[in-house]
Design a protein that fits this description.
Distance between the termini: 61 Å
Number of helices: 21
Shape: globular
Helix content: 25-40%
Mean pLDDT: 90
Largest sheet: 5 strands, mixed
CATH class of the largest domain: Alpha Beta
Strand order of the largest sheet: 2-1-5-3-4
Strand content: 15-25%
Number of strands: 21
Radius of gyration: 24 Å
Structural class: alpha+beta
Bound molecules: flavin-adenine dinucleotide, FE2/S2 (inorganic) cluster
Amino acid sequence: MQFLLNDELIDDNTLPSDFTALRYLREKRGLMGTKEGCASGDCGACTLLVGALEDGELTYSTLNSCITPMQSLAGKHVVSVEYLSKSGELHPAQQAMVACHGSQCGFCTPGFVLSLAGLYEKTQRSEQPIDREAVCDAISGNLCRCTGYRPIIEAGLSMTKEPMIKVQDAKETSFVELMSKNDRVKTQLERLQTEPKNSRNYLQPNDLEQLAHALKSHPGAVLIAGGTDLMLENTQRYRDFNTLIDVSNVVELKHLQIGEAALTIGASVTYSELEDFSKPLYPQMNALLSRIASRQIRNRGTIGGNVANASPIADLPPLLLAFDANIQLLKHDGSTRAVNIADFYLGYKKTQLASDEIIASFELSLDKLAQFHRFYKVSKRMEDDISSVMLAVRFDVDHGKLSDVRLAFGGMAATPIRGLKAEAALTGKAINDEQGLNQAIDALRSELTPMSDMRASAKYRLDMACNLIRKAWLELNGTDVVTFSGHAVSDSLLSTGLEASTHA
Ligand SMILES: Cc1cc2nc3c(=O)[nH]c(=O)nc-3n(C[C@H](O)[C@H](O)[C@H](O)COP(=O)(O)OP(=O)(O)OC[C@H]3O[C@@H](n4cnc5c(N)ncnc54)[C@H](O)[C@@H]3O)c2cc1C
Ligand code: FES
Ligand code: FES
């Protein structure tokens, strides 16, 4: 398998399938700038920038190298922190970090610098200004335990400001600007695209035909998409994988389109891709996606991986339940079947997916997407945290009455689950019938028995779930409900996380 590492073309066919990019850089290339903090995608110390050709354009995005198999980056341009500062020329992200005192012990710094460099390069292309929201988004997967985030955010904000405080003798250099001048990287990636990406233990089919062939010829192989769940089994539980089949490049699984009656989301669509797509069309969906994990994880993690992994605290299954989504399953022999998401989960981490099937896509009815819907994710931190409770709501309204209701939860049972009795209590009621709302809340208390764990107690979860239904109902009725994030809220409010208030 071949890839570009900084300015070197690498050809290496010796790697185990699950050998991470982080290990490759540090152990095989001696590139120690990339750090290992957690080996689970949580701290961002291992962040890399990776360039790929998309529709002929060279674009760069960040990822966590500690949970990314090196072989999944075949045909890509892997940029480590060493490359940003060749010959003493600092990238604007580095200059800004120096000028704003954004580093103390320095352990986290390469990761932050690459996240900020990724933002810088993206905004250079799109000519968007860099605002605080964009900086916080870019570094949402980077932890710093000693500097504090204020100087780092200031560094992000000052990257494009003129005149920026200059580090003595440093020249401002954007590596993408340099690349685009000589087109060397682009030309090399174009050539690599024509090279086979498969190795003996890591297969990367480009289409369904190649996937079918890979599945048939490697019956014991494990599927991997972004690897943001699967690779934790390797780095946290020391499970070795033999052959991996990477579905993230299968073109038919990347479909993201609005048809006559349904929105189709291919299984290998990443969170970042769905985020961009949903921004102008489905702002509520977009807002939920921006609360999932970090930018690095969203650049890799897929919708299919989230659903197949079958975690009861995953965020997409409640959303799909709210819209009664259909899942298209594809058998290895090419035949297909559709399963409604409501029937997909059979028990804790058990699904209807047979051993000879993969998830191909999800279909969400446009009519249902047009109805009132909300997604509420409650977690201990705003950035890069798993839900303690998640509620996805759909209220269909007909002549002032609730004609259909979906209340779908994550974190409340062994599987993603609907509050069927609560839904029934609201259905047919006038939208402003508060008695009906209270009946639904009572029903929910009787039908769900969440567990206590490190994220939340059973009582907290149930109280929160009830409050979230009330919040959705208030919003349906035109009341703004202010949700406080953890750091802005007093202890008493933390018990509910909510305060209802009517704004003129
Ligand atoms: C730091 C961190 C934060 C996270 N935060 C969140 C969060 O906020 N919310 C959340 O919901 N999740 C979160 N996750 C979990 C994870 O990112 C998501 O579940 C992600 O969507 C998994 O997708 P993937 O492509 O990485 O799947 P992979 O890890 O590649 O695969 C997961 C499983 O799905 C199977 N699989 C993949 N694709 C298919 C397919 N097409 N058909 C059949 N099986 C398939 C694989 O074999 C594997 O068993 C987080 C993970 C990390 C590491
Ligand atoms: S080492 Fe912490 S995210 Fe990779
Ligand atoms: S500078 Fe020490 S962890 Fe960030």
